[in-house]
Structure formats: structure tokens, C-alpha cells
């Protein structure tokens, strides 16, 4: 019987996996994961991602009775060796969209084909692949709304999710996956990740359960509640989506099937349009491959960023003296996740109030987020910075106090992650520096000791940012 090697990458699931289903049709299955040691920064996974990957691989290995072959090295060399050792006829994978991955995969395809091996790739992670969507004049969209509403929604319907295929793995494959995964040493050497385990279950089944729970409840209030960080109002599917433990197709059709294809409910429409923001991020990454490092809007190349180690460190450790910012940065550290509204607030504060280059923030998120994703992270940072495609204008500067008072009225979110402020009355929870001495004393807070004074004056730093922006606008 012919043998088909399935190269798993960011598609660590067995349901709705087009390459896996195709491999099973071709013959006996050889499931393989390769830890690509040729990657360097900025493409090498961050520390939090490696924690997730470790657990996701263990979950996947279990599905193959631990006969997942796990190797590390240069993929082309590993694949050639495996093809020879196991007499492989077909190699399949699901496509990735980063420039480095596309170049690597094209080269591998050529080398394998030269050896007489048949190679095929599939779409396993997007509803609409970037190369299939363009404006009437053939150029790529740069604005989200027409991209999604005009182009994507008028494309042929995305693939309906595939069932789990019935596979047979050759008997000579060893059940050695757990040892091989452990030997990749993915778990970070500094154990700051203990808290992750109480927040996340890293399995394909957990992704399905999270989706089901969300569409049975929170989706109907998503439009209003998604901005409130103290509520469980979002689906929290982002790390599963990044590692492909669930596909956007599974999400799309679970929602449509539940609501009989009706997208008119505000919650449903808004949720699906967030899934489409992920698609748009991949679209941008594909058509503008440098967005992780290069300003989409070249005017920002002359922006007068400022950098100060101590200031950046205060931001990363949640010690800026602005409670909603500090709560967000501490949520990230503790759980590997940060609520979307708060991501926007902390990013705006870094880039606009502290005038630190968005690329520094992007790198910190890359290392700490469990859902760190080249496309969504880079596109979102550029969006907040104002340098991106269809970005928030630079002059629209979030006031973190007003944002906190609007979206965390009672200060519940802040109190969860900044317990030293728990006794502060609601009136001052987002601006402790304005609290009278007696109030601070009753709340057992000494500013500068229990909680920092604000790093910068919000009004002055806002004006400084506007001046810096005016300078590049005029240039
Ligand atoms: C500065 C900044 C950095 C970010 N970095 C990342 C990142 O590295 N990885 C990542 O997946 N998301 C990133 N996001 C987008 C967004 O914050 C997360 O996708 C979202 O918070 C994940 O939580 P959820 O799954 O509960 O989202 P839900 O609200 O339930 O949304 C469902 C899904 O839609 C997608 N989505 C939602 N909002 C966005 C968005 N703005 N852009 C792209 N996709 C979106 C995600 O895949 C998400 O899982 C970033 C946002 C900002 C402002």
C-alpha cells in the first residue's frame, strides 16, 4: 500500500484537516511534526507559544496512539530522510502564508519532486486564501470593510468542515512521540507559566467545547459585552486558531448552522466579522510580507520614537501607574492572554503616551502571548500605531483613564490584576494619583511604594505624541 507523509505545522488537529484527509485517501499515513531549527528571530516562536506548542503536540500525538514522528532540524533534510526510510510516495501539508514559510515550502516541493515524490498542499487555515481575493483592477485591498463585505462575502462559500478521516499508520512506526516532544525542550527554562495551566486546556476537544459554549451563550451579547474585560464575553479561541487546533471553517459553520445561516443578528455578524479581521491580517501579510517589521505607511519611517529601558520595563511589568494598562500587562504575564480592548489600550499607551516604537511592543507580545501570530500581531500593532493599512488615525489617542471608566466601570478587571488597589473607591480606581491623601490612606496605599506614580502625565504625553505626528505629516 502507498504511504503518504502528512507534515503537520500550524494545523495540529484531526477534524477538518484537508491535508490529513487527502493523505488518508492516498494510502497509509505517516504523521510528522518538524521543529524547524533553521528559524531565527523574528520568526522563531516566542516563549509562551512554545509552551502551547508542547501541549498541543502531546494532544495530537495521543490521537495517533503516540505514533506521531517528531523531529527537529531543517525540514527539507528531515523530510528527505523520512521519505527514504519509509518509502514514501506522497507528501502533503496545509499552506502557511508567511514569506519565509512560502519560500521554504516552494524549495521543499522542488527538491521532493526531483526525487520522484508527489507533493500537494491544501488550504487548512483560512476561509478565503489571499491569492483568491483582489479588487476589480487586480490589486490587493487595503481597507477591511470592502475586503470583507464586498469581496469575501461574495466569494464561493468557504469549505464545509471535513470529518475525522479513518487512518492506518504503518506498524513499523514507533510509539515514541512523548519522548521526542520532550526532547524538543519547548517548555521555557524560566517557569513563569504555571498560571497558564489553570486558564487553558490545550486540546482539540477543549477548542470545540469553547466554541460550543460561546455559541450557546455569549455570542448573542457579543456586540455589547466584547469590550468589557471583566466578562467572559469573547470566545478565547485565538491560540487554538493560531496552532490550528480549530479551523475558521469549523467556527464559521458552527455559528451559521446554529443560526440557520442568518447573519443578521448583531452579535453573530460582529463575531463573524472578527473572524474576518484575522483573514484580513493574513491577507495583508501575504500581499505585504514585511508588515511585521516595516511601516505599512512609509511616512512613519521618520517618526521620532523615543526609547528608554526603564520606561519600557515599567510597561512590560505592569508598573506604569495607570491601572488599566498595568492590569492588562499583568494579565498577559499571568495568563498568556490579554483581552482585545485592553490590548488596544496598552498598545496605544506604549506607542503614543510613551512614544516607544510599535515594533518593541510587537516583540514583547510575540514572546508573551499564547496566541502570538505573525499576521494578527503585526497588523494589530500597526493598526494601533496608525502606521498600518486601514489603521486608527494616529491623532486618535486613547485616554486610558476614560477607557477604564467606560469599559471597566466598577474596576473589577483592574482589581483582579492589581490587588494592591482593591480598597480604592470606584471614583479613583482608574486614577489613583487624583485620590486625596485620606482616601489613599484608608485604602492602605502609599503611592510610590504600594503602587507607582504615573510614568508620564497623560495630557502632556498626548500633546507630545501629537507634535511628533505633526512633524511627519508635514515632512
Ligand atoms: C496590539 C494587538 C496585538 C494583537 N496580537 C494578536 C496576536 O498575536 N494573535 C491574535 O490571534 N490576535 C491578536 N490580536 C487581536 C485580538 O486581540 C485577539 O485575536 C483576541 O483578543 C483574541 O481573543 P478571542 O479569541 O477571545 O477573540 P474573539 O473576540 O472571540 O474573536 C474571535 C476571533 O477573531 C479573531 N480576531 C478578533 N479580533 C481580531 C483582530 N483585531 N485582529 C485579528 N483577528 C482578530 C481572532 O482569531 C479571535 O480568536 C491583537 C490585537 C491587538 C490590539
UniProtKB/TrEMBL annotation:
The keyword Cytoplasm does not apply. Coiled coil: none annotated. One of its GO terms (molecular function) is deoxyribodipyrimidine photo-lyase activity. Residues 2-127 form the Photolyase/cryptochrome alpha/beta domain. This is Cryptochrome/photolyase family protein. Its cofactor is (6R)-5,10-methylene-5,6,7,8-tetrahydrofolate; FAD. Keywords: Chromophore, FAD, Flavoprotein, Lyase.
Amino acid at each position: 500500500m502507498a504511504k503518504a507523509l502528512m507534515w503537520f505545522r500550524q494545523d495540529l488537529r484531526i477534524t477538518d484537516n484537508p491535508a490529513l484527509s487527502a493523505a488518508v485517501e492516498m494510502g497509509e499515513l505517516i504523521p510528522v511534526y518538524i521543529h524547524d531549527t533553521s528559524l531565527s528571530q523574528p520568526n522563531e516562536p516566542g516563549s509562551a507559544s512554545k509552551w502551547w506548542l508542547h501541549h498541543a503536540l502531546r494532544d495530537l500525538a495521543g490521537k495517533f496512539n503516540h505514533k506521531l514522528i517528531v523531529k527537529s532540524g531543517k525540514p527539507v533534510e528531515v523530510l528527505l530522510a523520512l521519505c527514504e526510510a519509509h518509502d514514501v510516495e506522497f507528501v502533503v501539508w496545509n499552506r502557511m502564508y508567511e514569506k519565509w514559510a512560502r519560500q521554504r515550502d516552494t524549495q521543499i516541493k522542488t527538491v521532493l519532486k526531483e526525487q520522484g515524490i508527489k507533493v500537494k498542499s491544501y488550504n487548512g487555515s483560512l476561509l478565503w486564501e489571499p491569492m483568491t481575493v483582489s479588487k476589480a483592477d487586480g490589486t490587493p485591498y487595503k481597507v477591511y470593510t470592502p475586503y470583507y463585505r464586498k469581496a469575501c462575502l461574495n466569494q464561493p462559500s468557504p469549505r464545509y468542515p471535513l470529518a475525522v478521516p479513518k487512518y492506518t499508520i504503518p506498524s513499523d512506526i514507533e510509539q515514541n512521540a512523548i519522548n521526542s516532544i520532550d526532547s524538543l525542550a519547548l517548555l521555557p527554562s524560566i517557569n513563569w507559566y504555571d498560571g497558564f495551566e489553570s486558564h487553558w486546556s490545550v486540546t482539540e476537544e477543549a477548542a470545540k467545547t469553547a466554541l460550543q459554549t460561546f455559541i450557546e451563550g455569549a455570542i448573542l451579547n457579543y456586540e455589547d459585552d466584547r469590550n468589557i474585560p471583566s466578562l467572559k464575553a469573547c470566545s478565547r479561541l485565538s491560540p487554538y486558531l493560531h496552532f490550528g487546533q480549530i479551523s475558521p471553517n469549523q467556527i464559521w459553520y458552527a455559528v451559521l448552522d446554529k443560526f440557520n445561516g442568518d447573519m443578521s443578528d448583531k452579535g453573530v455578524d460582529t463575531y463573524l466579522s472578527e473572524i474576518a479581521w484575522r483573514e484580513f491580517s493574513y491577507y495583508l501579510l501575504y500581499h505585504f510580507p514585511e508588515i511585521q517589521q516595516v511601516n505599512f505607511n512609509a511616512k512613519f519611517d521618520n517618526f521620532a520614537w523615543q526609547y528608554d529601558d526603564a520606561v519600557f520595563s515599567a510597561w512590560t511589568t505592569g508598573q506604569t501607574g495607570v491601572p488599566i494598562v498595568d492590569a492588562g500587562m499583568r494579565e498577559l504575564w499571568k495568563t498568556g492572554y490579554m483581552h482585545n480592548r485592553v490590548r488596544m489600550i496598552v498598545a496605544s499607551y506604549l506607542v503614543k503616551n510613551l512614544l516607544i516604537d510599535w515594533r518593541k511592543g510587537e516583540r514583547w507580545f510575540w514572546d508573551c502571548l499564547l496566541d502570538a501570530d505573525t499576521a494578527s500581531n503585526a497588523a494589530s500593532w500597526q493598526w494601533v500605531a496608525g502606521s498600518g493599512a486601514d489603521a486608527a488615525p494616529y491623532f486618535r489617542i486613547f485616554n486610558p483613564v476614560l477607557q477604564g471608566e467606560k469599559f471597566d466601570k466598577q474596576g473589577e478587571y483592574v482589581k483582579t490584576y492589581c490587588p494592591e488597589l482593591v480598597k480604592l473607591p470606584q471614583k479613583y480606581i482608574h486614577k489613583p494619583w487624583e485620590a486625596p491623601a485620606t482616601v489613599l490612606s484608608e485604602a492602605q496605599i502609599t503611592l510610590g511604594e504600594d503602587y507607582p506614580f504615573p510614568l508620564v502625565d497623560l495630557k502632556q504625553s498626548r500633546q507630545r505624541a501629537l507634535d511628533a505626528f505633526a512633524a511627519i505629516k508635514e515632512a
